Amino acid sequence: MVNTILVAYKKGSSLEYEESYDAKLLMVTPDSFYSQLGENKMMIQGRGLFSETDKVALGFSAYKSGTHTISIAKKEGLFDNNQAVYLKDKKMNTMVNLIETEYRFEATPGNDADRFEIVYRPDSTLSTGDHSQSQLQVYQIEGWVVIESPEGLSSVWVTDATGKQLYQSEVNGKTARIQASHYPSGQYYITVETSSGQKQTKKILKK
């Protein structure tokens, strides 16, 4: 099942509900995806002039357990000129740029109105894999994933592209090694927590 929503930045619209620019979700079905405007579940949402500090809350309901995918179907205007669109998964503590890749996650039956958020610049406690923002290094060598940090590490865990956690371990030091030879080829997320409590996530592609 496909659910499509629209978030638009247009002069004349605002963060208040306006019939000229906004449309509520007609029906919250067992499988629904929507943006949120106050207490309203939105199918179309106009948000005024664009700002990189804006945040758009997203909610969904799932009929049964399974894998779901969030992606951008179409982009226009400034989003057609490399403006990043980050999806923040607050449950998995990860962030991906939807301009570059889709995001797959596991959902259980029920409604979740607080798991996802669209932002336009990276969260200070999450990493999108940009080395200019962090000196955290994650690389693969001979079946191992090696993590090196300038700050002491306290914990590390691995999730797959669906959001399923595959590995978690406590760490005491600035380096960690994860045996990954048994993982099938695909995309994985390596999340670390430092001794100061900061969390960062790096994406790797295992061949």
- What percent strand? over 45%
Could you estimate the helical fraction of the residues in percent? under 10%
- How many strand units? 15
| Helix/sheet category | mainly beta
Mean pLDDT: 86
- Please report the number of helical segments: 0
Whole-number radius of gyration? 19 Å
Following the backbone from N to C, one meets helices and strands in this order, namely EEEEEEEEEEEEEEE
Report the end-to-end length measured between terminal Cα atoms: 30 Å
Low-confidence stretches: 124-134
How would you sum up the global shape? elongated
Major sheet, described briefly?
Answer: 8 strands, mixed
Please describe what this structure looks like.
This is Por secretion system C-terminal sorting domain-containing protein. It comes from Cloacibacterium rupense. Keywords: Signal. InterPro entries: Secre_tail. Strands 1, 2, 3, 4, 5, 7, 8 and 10 form an 8-stranded mixed sheet that branches. Strands 11, 12, 13, 14 and 15 form a 5-stranded antiparallel sheet that branches. This protein has a two-stranded antiparallel sheet with strand order 6-9. It contains no helices and 15 strands. With 207 residues, it is mainly β. About 5% of the residues have low confidence.
Give structural attributes.
eight-stranded mixed sheet; 52% strand; 15 strands; five-stranded antiparallel sheet; mainly beta; 207 residues; 0% helix
Q: What's this model, at a glance?
A:
This is Por secretion system C-terminal sorting domain-containing protein. This protein has 207 residues and is mainly beta. The protein contains no helices and 15 strands.
